[in-house]
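Progress note, project year one: complex with flavin mononucleotide.
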Amino acid sequence: MTFPHAPFHIGPIEVPNGLVMAPLHEITDQPFRKFIREVGGPGLVVSEMISSEGLIRHARKAEKMMASSGEHPYSMQLSGGNPVSLAEGARLCEEAGADMVDLNMGCPASNVTKGGAGSALLKDVKLAEACVSAMVKAVKVPVTVKMRAGWDESQKERGEFLDFLRMFEAVGVKSLAIHPRTRSQHYEGSADWSIIARAADAGTAYPIIGNGDVNSAEDAHRMIAETGCDAVMIGRGALTNPFIFRQILDPAFEVSVEMRVDATLRYFRILVELLDEREALHKIKKIGSWFTKGVPNGVAFRQKLQQMNEPAVLMAELEALKHGAAA
Ligand SMILES: Cc1cc2nc3c(=O)[nH]c(=O)nc-3n(C[C@H](O)[C@H](O)[C@H](O)COP(=O)(O)O)c2cc1C
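Model obtained:
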């Protein structure tokens, strides 16, 4: 078996293939992870970022983010900039059943960075080291990191991310996902895959997971060929096409309009099963509508969707979309 079909290891945990569903705040919650596992393909799923400070305060919102439907391997991602809180947060994640705990060193949002968390950790290698090291010491499960290429272009040009890579190895990090935009870029411009290639070339003892702008099976295979990364992580590409992982694993896998609408229906049923009705409706309006992009009559459906407040009506409209579209 060759990559991306071949398993890879994060510490002692075997990930069944080299495809990872990226953490997406307010998206990769318990219902979405259950859904994307069912659709099939990703070897690893990651929670949305969970505030370590929220966890130690036992905030309901943060605790709810840890909930799983028994999926394995399952990585829980923490955000924070305080080593003591992150260590305790990691311990709580382990206790809640995480197979591994990830530290977010990439979030560009100013409400996160102003508290010294997310990509702000890229400005201070010593603090980043204290955070990761405290987490590693606090838990038995592997600790992993997800980072950007740097805080800004000049830090990226100086290649400081390579210092972080070496520091991660020294403190016992077990995998690294790199989204090679800088914090200054937010989501503008394009992901500079040459940074992933340099990381993969650095000879770290842990696997390098490439991330950024993989929107098709072709992109995934190109990332693998161009960078030599050990696994590919996909975020937004799986929202517009939840079947992307299947298509990467099997180039002959075709997605029909009916399959896309059925997937939307299935996602909504999972939402209704796991969330209260109001939350389920909010999520389907926000996320489910991406799945119908490109479906005939999809634009009219999405406009109607925003006005729908009855689960039964929504399901009937989705059925109609499928039959109308399939006719
Ligand atoms: C809506 C949204 C939410 C995100 N939330 C998180 C998060 O909670 N943790 C994290 O590490 N990255 C987060 N990211 C970054 C993604 O995981 C990923 O690195 C980025 O979208 C680039 O990959 P892509 O081009 O495949 O989407 C988020 C991105 C988006 C668009």
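Residues 22-25, 27, 48-49, 77, 104, 106-107, 146, 179, 211-214, 234-237 surround flavin mononucleotide (CB under 6 Å).
The first helix runs from residue 30 to 39.
No further modelling is planned for this target in the current period.
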